[in-house]
């Protein structure tokens, strides 16, 4: 029977931890009592994507949700820019154009490489036949 995870570690030490979580809008701020930093995730539906890690000098030790909530609200208002949805819609086509331009460039490079390879092969054949 094949297992999902394979390991050579035979030390089966069980540890527990408490993670405090504060969600502001679509951002989830999580701090594990074992570590001094806060992990920030973008949440939506059933997905969760890591955004950044807050690890500043002189961060307080968070014991209660209220302390974490105040800290995260301050961080949110200092680091999150709220923009109009029209700005997002205007940005999206620009990204698509940039992606299309990159695809076009890659296609041209591929064509040039094939052409260069063909020319090199013909030159080698001509030199070999001479």
TrEMBL record:
<protein>
    <submittedName>
        <fullName>Uncharacterized protein</fullName>
    </submittedName>
</protein>
């Amino acid at each position: 029977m094949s297992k999902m995870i394979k390991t050579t570690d035979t030390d089966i030490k069980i540890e527990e931890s408490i993670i405090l979580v504060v969600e502001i809008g679509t951002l989830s701020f999580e701090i594990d009592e074992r570590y001094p930093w806060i992990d920030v995730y973008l949440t939506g539906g059933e997905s969760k994507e890591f955004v950044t890690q807050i690890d500043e000098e002189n961060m307080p030790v968070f014991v209660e949700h209220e302390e974490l909530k105040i800290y995260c609200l301050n961080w949110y208002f200092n680091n999150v820019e709220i923009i109009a949805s029209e700005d997002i819609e205007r940005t999206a086509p620009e990204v698509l154009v940039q992606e299309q331009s990159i695809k076009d460039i890659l296609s041209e490079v591929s064509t040039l490489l094939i052409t260069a390879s063909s020319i090199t092969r013909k030159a080698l054949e001509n030199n070999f036949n001479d």
